[in-house]
Every structure is written in structure tokens, then in C-alpha cells.
Amino acid sequence: MIDSGIDMVVAEASLRYRAPVRFDADVEVSAAVTRLGRTGMTTRLAISEAGEVLSEGELRHVFVAAGGNRKTEIPDSVRSGLDPYFVGEEPASRSEDQPDHEDDQQDDDQSR
Q: Per residue of the chain (112 residues), what is the pLDDT tens digit?
């Protein structure tokens, strides 16, 4: 992405520990895109062992111009690549005439 002039930064991260994890535990880490806005995305994370969720979290990324912090729209190629991992309610691929997601205002605030 950086070669094409786009990068992404973490605007917010959260993690909740629900149960201990042994050092040598065989765990499963899952990630699902729950929101694709105009300039940002949210990913839900879970760490599980034998079907029990041990930790869960969320990451919110904002897309910026490479080498700076100027917010930029998610490129269509990146949006298409994320489509298979999208589990939210709104369509991942939106036309330009559809309204922006209300959380994009948060992207504005966090990327400055």
C-alpha cells in the first residue's frame, strides 16, 4: 500500500481479557472487519482456546497518505481485498453517491 501512496494508522485499540492463557496454549486468533467507512475501518479480534473466548478486542484504523497524517479515502483495491472478511451490516463496497458512515467523523478527529 505504501508504494501506492496510502498507509493506515491505528486510531483506537481495545482488548478485554476474559480468562487466562497458558504460555504454551494452542489458541486460535480470529479477525473480522466489522465496519468499512469512507476513510476508516474497524476490526473485531478474538483469541480462543477449545471454543472458549479468552480475550477479545477491537482495532480502528484510519487510512492516511503515506509519509504523513492526512486522512484519505480507502482505495477501491483495498476495499475489494477486505470484502471477504467483512461481517458488518452495511455493504463493504459502496458507490460514491451513498452517504458516508457516521463514524467517519471520528476518523476525522482521530487522524489529525
A: 888 889 999 999 999 999 999 999 999 999 999 999 999 999 999 999 999 999 999 999 999 999 888 999 999 999 999 999 999 765 444 433 343 444 445 544 444 3
What is the spatial distance between Cα 40 and Cα 38, in angstroms, rounded to a whole number? Answer: 6
pTM beyond 0.85: the answer is: no
Quick check: 73 and 64 in contact, CB under 8 A? no
Residue with cell 484510519: 62
Residues 78 and 84 sit within 8 Å (Cβ to Cβ): no
Quote the cell numbers at residue 2.
505504501
The domains of the chain are located at: 2-90
2-90: CATH number: 3.10.129.10
